[in-house]
Amino acid sequence: MHAPCVRVPTEEGEATRRRLADADLVDESLDIVVEDGALYIPVTGPDAVPDGLRVVERDVPERETPTSPADLLGFEPSYERLGDIVILDEDDPARAARIADAIAESNVRAETVVNRASKVKGETRVRDWDVLVGESTETVHREYGCEFALDIAEVYFSPRLATERHRVVQQVADGERAVDMFAGVGPYAIPMARAGAEVVATDINDRAIDYLRENAERNDVADRITAYAGDVREIADDYTGWAERLVMNLPHTAQEFLDTAVALAGEECVLHYYDIQHEDERYAPGEAAIRDAAEPAYDVTIETRHTVRSYAPHEYNVCLDVRLTRN
């Protein structure tokens, strides 16, 4: 069958295959071909293949017995992937175990399969997990050219927000000053730094900051990121009037930090404010809270009212992109 393939030397084959698999780009219905010292890895989306990898067209055989979890189960299970971890959200432990076994036996490449065992809890927003296959809850997640090492048992991370993070990062200008007030392992801070920003990143979770610093090194932006473990309010005096961009991705309680955000804002600053609200009034409460905190010291201009995703029945995760201009 004629198909687009990534061509790499055989010694780079496994690392490249894993990189493509993490991005869900490997065409699992076709075989990988080895020929003349090169590996040809069939891909589903040639336009999404990372820069630096060569895509060629060639004939590759179809897999004789592709085995998906659905083939083994008789139904299509729901799961998401984070690096080489597969994440389930099943209420029935027996069903979760059955799905995990099917994933392990299938052509899904995963080192670990876990099932959510609690809701996100505490200041650090972590949750409990039942590890069903494998041992380690640590992985490396790849997203829009960045790599993020993390342990899902110790830090909060949502792969579902990749598109939203990319939306924000595309607005970043080279040389601007940004503060990520609730930074986690760096999914906003790292790509903002890669875009040329000087970034200050804080998080209450010490382990998240450990990973953020590791990820800054991993992505070659350590010279543009200053990371603090602790409450952002503790460093506000050191950065008063400094920020040209603020990210407030703490949807349930970001309002409590708006006074700090205003203190950090420079003469002109774009604020990305995340909120959870009822479908009938998604944006008004956040807008009112921002105006209460910023006016009259700043003119407040709502540039974007954006629904990120459904959060719960009749509730939505939303973002307000707000420009603050000092009077």
UniProtKB/TrEMBL annotation:
<keyword id="KW-0489">Methyltransferase</keyword>
<dbReference type="InterPro" id="IPR056744">
    <property type="entry name" value="TRM5/TYW2-like_N"/>
</dbReference>
<dbReference type="InterPro" id="IPR056743">
    <property type="entry name" value="TRM5-TYW2-like_MTfase"/>
</dbReference>
<dbReference type="Pfam" id="PF18093">
    <property type="entry name" value="Trm5_N"/>
</dbReference>
<keyword id="KW-0963">Cytoplasm</keyword>
<dbReference type="InterPro" id="IPR030382">
    <property type="entry name" value="MeTrfase_TRM5/TYW2"/>
</dbReference>
<dbReference type="Pfam" id="PF25133">
    <property type="entry name" value="TYW2_N_2"/>
</dbReference>
<dbReference type="InterPro" id="IPR040601">
    <property type="entry name" value="Trm5a/b_N"/>
</dbReference>
<dbReference type="GO" id="GO:0008175">
    <property type="term" value="F:tRNA methyltransferase activity"/>
</dbReference>
<dbReference type="InterPro" id="IPR029063">
    <property type="entry name" value="SAM-dependent_MTases_sf"/>
</dbReference>
<dbReference type="GO" id="GO:0002939">
    <property type="term" value="P:tRNA N1-guanine methylation"/>
</dbReference>
<feature type="domain" description="SAM-dependent methyltransferase TRM5/TYW2-type">
    <location>
        <begin position="79"/>
        <end position="326"/>
    </location>
</feature>
<protein>
    <submittedName>
        <fullName>tRNA (Guanine-N1)-methyltransferase</fullName>
    </submittedName>
</protein>
<keyword id="KW-0819">tRNA processing</keyword>
<keyword id="KW-0808">Transferase</keyword>
<dbReference type="Pfam" id="PF02475">
    <property type="entry name" value="TRM5-TYW2_MTfase"/>
</dbReference>
<dbReference type="GO" id="GO:0005737">
    <property type="term" value="C:cytoplasm"/>
</dbReference>
<keyword id="KW-0949">S-adenosyl-L-methionine</keyword>
